[in-house]
Each structure stands twice: as C-alpha cells, then as structure tokens.
Design a protein that fits this description.
This protein has helices at 13-16, 23-37, 39-42, 45-71, 79-95, 100-119, 128-147, 149-152, 174-195, 199-209, 211-216, 221-248, 258-271, 276-302, 310-331, 336-349, and strands spanning 159-160, 165-166, 169-170, 250-251. With 355 residues, it is mostly helical. Strands 1-4 form a two-stranded antiparallel ribbon. The chain is globular and about 60 Å long.
C-alpha cells in the first residue's frame, strides 16, 4: 500500500536526508499544499478571515517560539512583547517612507536585538530565573508602549496601519493578505525543518538536553543561546508586523499583553515541544477551540437544551478549554504532535504490530 513502509529502500544518504523520505508523507504535503492554495475558492470570507488567517499567523509565531523553547530549551514568557516591537516599529518605518519589505526586515532585526538583550540573561541563569527575565521584558515593553506617546500615541490610542504593497502587489483585500501570510508561514516552516538537520540545529538540541555536557564536547553554549534568541526574536518580530498589517489593521497595547505570551507558550506545549507539526496543531487548539466551544454552548443555550445564565455561558467554554488542555497534558505530555506520530506509525505498519 502507498502509505506503508514496506518497499521503501534508501541506497543513498541524500535519500535518507530528505524532508519527507516516505511517499505517503510527500502525498500528504502535496494535498495540504493544494488545499492551502485553493482555500479562498471554497472557504467563505468569514472562515478565511476569522479562522484560517489568524491560525496561520499564530502558527508562524508558535514556530518562532518553538525554535527557542523546543529546540534550544530556553523558556520565554514575553514573546508577545517581541511581536509588539515588530508591529509598532514596522508601522513607524512604513509611515516614514520605508518600503514594506525592508520595514519587515528592519522590524525583525530591532526585535531580535532587544530580544537578545534580555536573552543574554540565559547566559547566567536558567529555568524559573530565565522566566523572570523574559517577564521583565514583557512588562517593560508594555510600559513603554502605554506611556511613550511617540510609540503608541497614548494608553488608549489605536495606531492605524498604512496601506502597503509587497513586490509591487498591493496588500489590499482578504485574499492578498491570506496568500502573503501563507507564504510567510511556509517560509518559517521550511526554515525550521532545515535548521533541525544542520549543525546549528544539532548544537541547539545539545544545549537543550544538557548544556554542561555540550560545553565539554566543544559546543559554545553562550553563542548558540544568543543565536537562538536572535533568530527566534527576528521571526517573532516579523510575524508581529504581519499580524498588524494583514490581520488587525490597527494595533493597541492590549493586543500584545501577557495573556498573548501565555497563549503562545500554551501553543508550543500543547502541540509538542520542538515539533513543527505540533506548532500548527497547538495553534489550532489554543486559538480556534475556544471559538468553536463558545459557538457550540451558545447554540445549545439558544435551543433551550442548556438552561444557564449568560455569565455562566460565557465561562463554560473557558472551563471546557482548560479541561481539554489538562487532558492533553495528563494523557500525552509530549503534546498533539506525539499523538499524530503514534497514529502515523500505526498506519505505516498496519495491520502488523510495530513492536
């Protein structure tokens, strides 16, 4: 059968180093690519704008954080601040006349430099102490955004995003924004998939597993920790700018609060640390499941099958959402990616046992 391992032989190292060495995996990627490219043709505008677009953007944000937390093992509870730096700086750069593409790169570099300043604490501390350092970054960035009028215009001000174009294509309308976000998400995905196969990726994994042992065998743990913070913050800054221009259309301080940082960490943990597929699955669960649960509970209440008050109805989806996360963490601590991998391996050898 096309989805099984039998009959798949690799006689060259190039074949074993492929991103998707099995034909079944390649067919799966092709089908997903076709569905993603044709999504505007069969999805409604509501589904495209309310579900697909934010899911892709936050999947790229989760991928950026996966590089730092999953591959390098460095905790970060202020990643929303990194995205806020990219969002606000890109808007000011575009307003100053900088082309949008260059503004994205500069915003990412600025977010990476500031992220490295706070990430430098990883050279001396780890664990909960590193969490406190990244929390300090979150609260400092929030304070500057709220209190410095030159950045945000005031505590309750809204900073509008100007009209932009990329490669002479105006980013106007839902379809143009969708394809631009899709291209960026695919680029980040391919970057992480290839980093995992390089010497950089192997060094980051060594630092994550046991940094002292990595230092003994010659890995410069200080350098690789800073590289992880720089690359992750750069990707997060660009993602924050894309979030502002392609989805929000205007930014406020509340859109990049500490709650968003917690959501991003939850995406990485629920999806599976270090997993590219898990970043997509985690973003889908954390971002979209509450919306579906809210709609489901509202439908039951409207039909009279769930006679509860409005206040309780607003909290039931959050309770179910929290119970769902606890279920995943209790029964599969490695996240949704491990569940997917178990199911994939089951079908690769079915009907035979894999052990």
């Amino acid at each position: 059968m096309f989805y099984r391992l039998s009959g798949v032989y690799h006689t060259r190292y190039r074949a074993t180093r492929q991103l998707w060495p099995l034909p079944a995996d390649r067919w799966q990627i092709i089908i997903l690519a076709v569905l993603a490219l044709t999504a505007p043709l069969f999805l409604s505008k509501v589904a495209l704008s309310s579900y697909m677009l934010p899911w892709l953007i936050f999947s790229s944000a989760a991928l950026s954080l996966t590089l730092l937390m999953g591959m390098a093992g460095q905790l970060h509870f202020g990643f929303a601040a990194v995205m806020a730096i990219g969002a606000y700086s890109s808007i000011h750069l575009v307003q100053a006349g900088v082309p949008f593409g260059l503004a994205l790169v500069l915003a990412g570099i600025l977010a990476a430099l500031i992220g490295c300043i706070f990430g430098a604490s990883a050279l001396r501390v780890k664990g909960l102490y590193l969490v406190m350092a990244t929390l300090a970054m979150q609260y400092l960035v929030d304070w500057f955004i709220v209190n410095v009028d030159a950045i945000s215009g005031g505590a309750v001000a809204t900073l509008q995003t100007p009209s932009v174009s990329f490669l002479f294509i105006p980013l106007k309308g839902l379809v143009a924004n969708y394809y631009f976000v899709l291209a960026w998400t695919v680029l980040v995905t391919l970057l992480l998939l290839n980093i995992k196969r390089t010497s950089l990726g192997r060094a980051l994994v060594a630092v994550r597993d046991k940094d002292f042992a990595a230092a003994v065998i010659g890995v410069d743990i200080f350098r690789y920790k800073l590289v992880a913070f720089f690359v992750s913050s750069f990707l997060g800054g660009v993602t924050g700018a894309i979030l502002a221009f392609c989805y929000y259309g205007a930014v406020t301080a509340q859109q990049f609060s500490f709650d968003v940082s917690v959501q991003l960490v939850a995406m990485v943990l629920v999806g599976g640390l270090g997993s590219v597929v898990g970043s997509y699955l985690g973003a889908g669960v954390v971002l979209l499941v509450p919306l579906f649960l809210t709609k489901f509970v509202s439908t039951l209440a409207a039909a009279g099958w769930l006679p509860i008050s409005i206040e309780l109805m607003a909290n039931i989806p959050l309770m179910l959402y929290g119970a769902l996360i606890m279920f995943f963490l209790l029964f599969e601590p490695l996240g949704l990616a491990k569940m997917y991998d178990n199911m994939r391996k089951y079908f690769l050898v079915w009907p035979f046992r894999h052990n």
